[in-house]
Design a protein that fits this description.
TIM Barrel; 8-stranded parallel barrel; alpha/beta; 12 helices
Length: 304
């Protein structure tokens, strides 16, 4: 029975990010054909959106150098939103030549991390995002992910006012879908609740989502805080894979199967088939040999 514990929604949207955020740090290259198979298995689970890859410099992220080939090889349900991360105009041009439904820009709430991750200042990235949007056709949806909202490996805790100012600047460029990312995995529930509730009150026209890493084991607790604050869109990665090359200490994302299991038990609909998801996560785990999933470990024990 949803709604009996706090102010909880009846349903949420889950964006599966393992193919992009989950795989980007892996040392051994996953063959393109295998990537297509794994993404197709995830697509069959019922996700509304999958972040398939990123059009970044292949020298920076070799694992995602085959983004165009993966997208070209996919056969996914017509209703599935295929999104990709794009850092700059060069990546955008390449992305627009592929079958992509949504373009995801990114910027950091920390200027130091922005320099490390994108090689330029936060202000320069805002200019680039505005320039990219002028090139995006009207039929392509757009979103921006804001990294290190709740803490940065270089600058420490980020003040709410700094995040608010950045969100205001992004809204001015025409963006109305914004994901708040705990890239380092250091957020605590009261901080998440305060930021999410305050930002939604300040920017009621924006569709906010949460992207939580589980470095400190608090990701599900922060989901609860987000739910109570009214957030109904969450990023997660099958198998708990993930991490940022420029955020030392950042562990994997919240495992999608952990999130789906918890929410479905609470009566909050996700639209994702838990059994198909577990099967897809197990298949992925057998290939990449990495991740941090409680449900995979638990169900493996139950089968013994």
């Amino acid at each position: 029975m949803s709604g009996t514990y706090g102010n909880l929604p009846e349903a949420v949207r889950i964006v599966e990010v393992a193919p992009r955020d989950g795989w980007q740090n892996l040392g051994e290259f996953i063959p393109t054909a295998t990537k297509v198979e794994l993404v197709s298995e995830l697509a069959a689970c019922g996700f509304a959106e999958i972040e398939v890859s990123s059009f970044v410099n292949p020298r920076a992220i070799p694992q995602l150098a085959d983004a165009a080939q993966v997208l070209a090889g996919l056969e996914t349900p017509a209703e599935l939103i295929r999104s990709v991360l794009v850092p700059n105009r060069r990546g955008l041009v390449a992305a627009l030549e592929s079958p992509v439904d949504k373009l995801v820009f990114f910027i950091s709430a920390s200027d130091t991390h922005n320099h490390k991750n994108l090689g330029c200042s936060q202000a320069d990235t805002l200019v680039e995002i505005e320039a990219m949007q002028a090139l995006v056709p009207e039929d392509r949806a757009r979103r921006v992910s804001v990294s290190n909202v709740f803490g940065c490996p270089y600058e420490g805790e980020i003040a709410y006012d700094a995040v608010s100012r950045l969100v205001a600047a992004l809204v001015q460029t025409g963006l109305s879908e914004i994901t708040l990312c705990d890239t380092l995995g250091v957020a605590v529930p009261d901080q998440v609740y305060l930021f999410c509730a305050s930002l939604q009150e300040q920017f009621p026209e924006v569709d906010f989502g949460l992207h939580l890493h589980d470095s400190c084991g608090r990701a599900l607790a922060c989901v609860m805080a987000g739910l109570q604050a009214g957030i109904t869109r969450y990023d997660s990665a099958a198998g708990g894979l993930g991490g940022c090359p420029f955020a030392p200490g950042a562990a994997g994302n919240l495992a999608t199967e952990d999130l789906v299991s918890c929410l479905e038990r609470m009566g909050i609909a996700t639209g994702v088939d838990p059994e198909k998801l577990l099967a897809a996560a197990r298949r992925q785990a057998g290939i990449v040999r990495a991740g941090n999933s409680h449900m995979l470990a638990f169900t493996a024990g139950c089968r013994q």
